[in-house]
């Protein structure tokens, strides 16, 4: 049995969001094909994801300097413990499905915060004499990303910093099996094609779910 983290980063619902609609189709199809797997849905807009603020940085520094957890302030304890729980849950999973829109050429701030929370030395990567080394080899990722224009190819491709950012971070963790489904071009002048674009992406999601 595999554990799948279904990580969504959109504040609306599948009826209002192209990315969530495709993600919903994928996860329903995946569940049907893999009834024994555990699927954990992380709606990042409903999760407590601490920012890397003064409490976090000071708490970590105290721990590195030899202080015990009990010597941290209440705020430091709460945030440091929560970040530890987030990355431990992430490391324990086998597969990851990220669902997000592309906002201002990149991922939503809440997904960036979650990615910060999972980028912890000794957990998802380690430092060696030869440089950083990813610790999550053998895991799989699917990223479903929606955007109003087309960024996966063509003249706007250099501006795409959503999937490309996630891809680099996940490879840094040692994950090599990374696939993407782009739901793009839905806000162009030919808006009448938006439903077709969504349906094609849903069909692709169902196909990918059978082999993910």
UniProtKB/TrEMBL annotation:
Cofactor, free-text remark: Binds 1 FMN per subunit.
| Annotated binding of FMN, by residue | 17-19, 102-105
* Record-listed E.C. numbers: 1.6.5.-, 1.7.1.17
**Catalytic activity field:** N,N-dimethyl-1,4-phenylenediamine + anthranilate + 2 NAD(+) = 2-(4-dimethylaminophenyl)diazenylbenzoate + 2 NADH + 2 H(+); 2 a quinone + NADH + H(+) = 2 a 1,4-benzosemiquinone + NAD(+)
Gene Ontology molecular function: any one:
FMN binding
| The keyword Glycosyltransferase is annotated on this UniProt entry | no
Residue stretches making up the Flavodoxin-like fold domain: 3-206
Q: Give the record's keywords alphabetically.
A: Flavoprotein, FMN, NAD, Oxidoreductase
Q: What cofactors are annotated for this protein?
A: FMN
Gene3D superfamilies referenced in this protein's UniProt entry, alphabetically: 3.40.50.360
Per the record's keyword annotation, is Metal-binding included, yes or no? no
Q: Which InterPro entries match?
A: Flavodoxin_fold, Flavoprotein-like_sf, FMN-dep_NADH:Q_OxRdtase_AzoR1, NADH:quinone_OxRdtase_FMN_depd
Enzyme category, top tier: oxidoreductase
Family named by the database record: Belongs to the azoreductase type 1 family.
- NCBIfam families in the record: PRK13556.1
HAMAP family per the UniProt record, alphabetical: Azoreductase_type1
- What is the recorded function of this protein according to its Swiss-Prot or TrEMBL entry? Also exhibits azoreductase activity. Catalyzes the reductive cleavage of the azo bond in aromatic azo compounds to the corresponding amines. Quinone reductase that provides resistance to thiol-specific stress caused by electrophilic quinones.
What does the subunit comment say? Homodimer.
What is this protein identified as? Answer: FMN dependent NADH:quinone oxidoreductase
Gene name of this polypeptide: azoR
């Amino acid at each position: 049995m595999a554990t799948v983290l279904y990580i969504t980063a959109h504040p609306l619902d599948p009826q209002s969001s192209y990315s969530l609609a495709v993600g919903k189709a994928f996860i329903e199809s995946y569940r049907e094909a893999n009834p024994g797997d555990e699927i954990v849905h992380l709606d990042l807009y409903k999760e407590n994801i601490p920012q890397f603020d003064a409490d976090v940085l000071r708490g970590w520094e105290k721990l590195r300097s030899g202080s015990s957890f009990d010597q941290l302030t209440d705020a430091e304890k709460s945030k440091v413990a929560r970040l530890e729980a987030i990355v431990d849950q992430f490391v324990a999973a086998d597969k990851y499905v990220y669902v997000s829109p592309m906002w201002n050429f990149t991922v939503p701030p809440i997904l960036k915060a979650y990615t910060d929370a999972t980028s912890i030395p000794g957990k998802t990567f380690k430092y060696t004499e030869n440089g950083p080394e990813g610790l999550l080899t053998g895991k799989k990722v699917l990223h479903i990303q929606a955007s109003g224009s087309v960024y996966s190819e063509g003249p706007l491709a250099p501006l795409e910093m959503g999937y490309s950012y996630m891809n680099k971070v996940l490879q840094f963790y040692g994950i090599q099996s990374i696939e993407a489904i782009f739901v793009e071009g839905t806000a162009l002048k030919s808006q009448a094609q938006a439903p077709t674009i969504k349906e094609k992406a849903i069909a692709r999601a169902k196909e990918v779910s059978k082999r993910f």
